[in-house]
Write a structure and sequence with these properties.
With 190 residues, the protein is an alpha/beta fold. It has a single domain, classed as Phosphoglycerate mutase-like (Rossmann fold, 3-Layer(aba) Sandwich), CATH 3.40.50.1240. The protein has a 6-stranded mixed beta sheet. β5 and β6 form a beta hairpin. The N terminus is likely disordered. Keywords: Signal.
Length: 190
């Protein structure tokens, strides 16, 4: 087999190799979201290259931050269409004050999110982690008819759940009593 044929083969096979159990788990997560009452941590969509924000960035000035790429904007719009097509009820939308999270929320849900400082980026800010995680736990509570979507950062999701999501990926939490929760699973926008 020549190199091009081998490469095509290697790129094609994994798409077919998704185990049936993974597809069943994904279907169960979509049903869980359709029933409502879940909390969804969504990492912002794809951004321009880099990690963190440039030195001297300002939350009130999007030009000083790392922002969504064109691909990220398209991905966010696609996710919004997917959520609507699947009939996912949305009770509230919260977002980190970072521009990439606010823009992701607007593109996915078609409305301005409520800004929630507890969803702020923890990357490079380890001293803030304990306080923010405590605030986030208070937001994860049962009793909602629809789902609570929180658009945030990978570092913030990791600190709360132990899961490091890809850009645009959702981590579904099933709230329990007293700020506790169970990670129900992860969904990528497809």
């Amino acid at each position: 087999m020549d190199r091009r044929a081998l490469l095509r083969h290697l790129l094609w096979v994994p798409a077919l190799a998704v185990p049936a159990t993974a597809r069943a788990d994904e279907a169960a997560l979509w049903r869980l979201l359709q029933a409502g009452g879940q909390v969804v941590l969504m990492r912002h969509a794809a951004t321009t290259p880099g990690v963190g924000d440039p030195p001297g960035f300002a939350l009130g000035n999007c030009r000083t931050q790392r922002n969504l790429s064109d691909e990220g904007r398209q991905d966010a719009q696609r996710l919004g269409r997917l959520l609507r097509a699947r009939g996912i009820p949305v009770e509230r939308v919260l977002a980190s004050p970072w521009c990439r999270c606010v823009e992701t929320a607007r593109l996915v849900f078609g409305r301005d999110p409520e800004i929630e400082p507890a969803l702020g980026n923890l990357f490079g800010r380890p001293a803030q982690e304990a306080g923010q995680v405590a605030q986030l736990r208070r937001l994860v509570r049962p009793g909602q008819a629809g789902n609570l979507f929180m658009v945030t950062h990978g570092s913030t999701t990791l600190a709360l759940t132990g899961v490091s999501p890809a850009q645009g990926e959702m981590v579904v939490l099933s709230p329990q009593a007293a700020g506790d929760f169970q990670v129900a699973g992860r969904l990528a926008a497809r």
